[in-house]
Every structure is written in C-alpha cells, then in structure tokens.
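Progress against Task 2.4 (sequence-to-structure conversion) is shown through the following example record, which the project officer requested during the mid-term review.
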Amino acid sequence: MQTFEDYKKFRDESVSLLRDLAQKLRVLGGESKARTIIQVAEELNKNDFRIIFCGEFKRGKSTLINAILGQKALPMKVAPCTGVITEVKYSPEPKALVHPLRGDPFKASHEDIKKYIAIQGNDAPDVSRVELCYPINICENAITLIDSPGLNEDWKRTQVSLTELNKADAVIMVLSCEMALSRSEMDFIESRLMHHNAGSFFVWNRYDAVWNDDQEIAALRSRSQSRLQKYKNQVYYLSAREALVARLRNDHPRYTRSGLPSFMNSLEQFLTEKRAVDKLYIPLNQGKRAAQYAIHVLGPRLKKLINNTREELQKESLYLREKLKEISHTKEALKELIKENIEDILNDIIETMDDFLITISQKACQDSGEITLPKAANRQERQDFLIRWYNQWLKEQLQSLGSEEFLKHIHNGFEELSQELHHEREKFHTHIQQLLGIDIRTQKTMNVDHIWTRDISYFVSSSIATRIHSSCIKPVSVSMMGLGALRAWLAGEKIDEAERITFATALFDTLQNKRSDIIRLIRHQLEESFSSIRASIDGEMQELIHDAQHQIHHAIELHSKQESISDIEEALHNIKTLYIELSERAEDA
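Structure tokens generated for the chain above:
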C-alpha cells in the first residue's frame, strides 16, 4: 500500500471477507463466534488513521488542519483557544455532533459549533468532544484529524490530549517559527512522545514569517537541530496559513511553496507503510483463527449432531447444560490466578521502590555536586535552572528504574502468568472438547487468541515510571522552594555538600510521604493493564460454551428444514476458501 486510497480499498475488501465469514459461521451454528467476527469487522470498518495535532495554543493547529482539509472546517482565532477534542471525519452530508460530559450526544449547526469548542474566559466547555463531519476527500479515505486543547492551558485539558495520544496513529507536534521551544513543550516531547517515536512529526509552523531571512532560517534550523536531534528526519517547516489560502484560491505554486505537500507525502508514506500493517494484521488473523475454529470444531461436531434424532438432541442439550455448569468454575479460577499475579508483581515492585527510595537521597547528593549554576543569570533564572535540573534528574532516575527494575519484574510476572493461563486454558478446552465428543487432537490446530505482546511489559513499566514522576514532581518542587538552603545556592556557581545533603533529605522525605499514593498508582496501572486479559479470557470461554449449546438447537432446526450433510460440507468448503483469502491478505498487509 502506498496511498490512503490503497488502504481504504484493502480495508473495505477485508471487512467484506470477515462479514462473509460470519455468515458462514452461522450456517454451522457458531452464532457466538459469528457475533465476534461481525464486531471485528465493524471495528475494522471504523478504524481510520487517527492523526492528532498537539501543541500549545497560538501555534496554529486549527489552521494547519484546515489547510490539510482545504477548507475552513475548524474555527480559527477563537478566544482564547480550542478547549475540547475536536474530530474531523468523513460524512456524505455536513453535520456536527456534540458529546457532552453528561447525557447523550446531540446535533448542532456548524454556525453554533464555536461556542462548544472555544474556552470562554476561565470556563471550559461542558463537552468532552465534538465531531465535525464533511464530504472531504482526504477524510473519505479513512482519515480522522483531531484538534487537541492547548498543552499549557489547563491540566485537565492536557490530560484529555494525553489520553487521545494512546489512540493516535500519528502525532503532529505543532511549533511556531516565531517562538522558542518552551519548557513545557520540551517536557511534553521528552516524557509523552517517547511511545510515539516513529509516529511523531514536528511541524515548525508560520515559516512564511522567516523564509525571506537567511539568518533567521539558519538560527531556526540550528535551534531545531539542537533540541530535536532525536527526531531530525521527522521535522518539517511550513506555513499553514499560506497553504490554506493557496488551496482556497487553487494556487498550486503557492501551495507547493507553503511546504505542506512535502509534509503530507511523508505522513502518508508512514501511515500506509507502517501503521496500516498493525491495523489490518490483527483483525485478519482473528478471521483466520475463526475459520480454523469452524473447520476443526464447529463443522465436525455439527456433522455428528445432525445424525442424531430430534429426541437424542434434546437429551444431549439437557446433559450438556448440566455438565457446562460443572466446568464453568474454571473461569473463576483463572480470574483468581490473574489477581494473584498482580499481587506478586506489585510486591516485587514495592520492594524495588523501597530500595530506590533508600538510595535516591545519596545519589541526589552525589549528582547535584556536578551542577554548575549560570554566572550571568538573575535569581529567578537560577531558581528555574535548579528546578529544571532536579525535574529532569528525577525523571531520568524514574525512567531508568522503570526500564530496568520494573520492566524485569513485570516481564517475569507476565511470562509466568502466560504459562499458567495457557495450562489452565488447555485444560478448559480439553474438558469442552471431550464433552462435545470431538477428537482432542483437533485442538492443536485451534489457535486461541493470545493477548500477550512483546511490548506490553515495556509499556506498563514505562507508564508506571511516567505516572510516578507526574505525581511527585510538584511536591518535590514545593519542598525545594521551602528550603532555606536554596537561597544560598543562588549566590555561587556550586552547591556545597551541606546544602546538597539538606535537599537530598527533603527529597527522600517528600517521596516517602508519597509512598502510599505511589503504590495505589502502580496497582491501578497493573489492574488496568490486566483488565483486557480478563475480558479476553471471559469472552473466549463464554464463546465456546455458548456455541456448544447453540449448535444443538441449530441441529434441531436443520432437522426441521431437512438440511443435509452436503449443505454443511458446502459451508465448510466456503470457509476453507475464506481462510486462504484471509491468509493471503494478512501476508499482503
């Protein structure tokens, strides 16, 4: 795939195959599995490329989105800025949908939409997000553009933006050629975009303000290279205003000069070559596994059931209902297994965290001896310098703790749980298949959905470290400001040992006081990460139980309709064909 159109076409064809598979599963009595595949198909059908635009206010995010769209879809120069998540997506007819914080979504006119998007004074809009839908070509090709609240305006609105980052396929950080990179911008880049390294793009907007001044251009590029060296191949210079005017006036040379075409080509290449695979591969493989399930489990059992008389099937239904109750306790045992694993991981992390708290004061005292305060700086600048240094230092210590110690505990815990779950689920599947009278050897060809990925341990450990830093940095800064020793630091270039010990002790006390909060935070992150595991296991087991029951009723219906084995064979043949097609598409994706 090379274009957004290619992805849209491939996705639509894949959705059609999955829907066809669901229909064939129903022929074999696999109603529960069919519903699952329909859900997979519908989720894939809605799975647009989500492109989020982040940045502090007055950087031109809304103007850039309008330039990409080629029309003024988003309000610009609202006072003071966008206050909610605003999604721009495709619809044959223009419409706007407002999602309030409480209550059901409602339609609004495009003329009134500004009052729902803009922050009025100190009051944020009483809505969670707004959807703007237009018959726009780029959005028709499976693209959703997301305008986010300014990063430095309000913590709650910043949290909204951060939540959307987890759903995004690409993150566009909008900067201004007329302003230096702020501390909050750098903090956001360093702490929040680390999980989106490959999918992060940095746009220096308002390039038209400097593009006639060679010295300004050189200074800007030098500043960008020094601060964004890690992302040097993902940095672009453009003028969103010039691009928008050019598109509205159909001025192609002006549009080319704006710099937007070059950026859009790179964005399209990244999304279609990198992200498209992730979006398509998982649902296609879910389809493949469902086809295997039909071929090796549903088909053989239905052929066996249909040879029974109606009376025998009714007896089988009653017998099965009682037996299934006996083995349903396995679900509860697996839930308990997950709960115990969370506690084991948590205890290991707490022990490591306590060791960290003991040693961090000594390390803080030692490392702060390397600080050299700027000579020419005034008192406020020196104070800001110290706070930034300790902020960055604490962040690095926690990130190191997360990527080394936390990662080890979480990875080991996940590995151990994975093996135990696999063993318990094998027992569950064996009970089910023995009960249904299917050759147990066929289970080997039935691939159960696994939610384990190589990245999950890294993601959880990094998230924990980041959230600990976010919860601790403010009280640490406050403790620094409360130290009388700080006044002495502002006089010379170095911090003497007594003053460093004083701060190190205050740092330890502050973190120790936050210990209970940190433990609650870690527990919440672990439980949040394991919740999808519980849901996956529950769904998988319930699916097997439901299909086992439904197939008997389906066999009784087939008796009434005088369906034959040949009809079942035809359905199986079609499913085998679909399996081949899904396999080929998974490879092509």
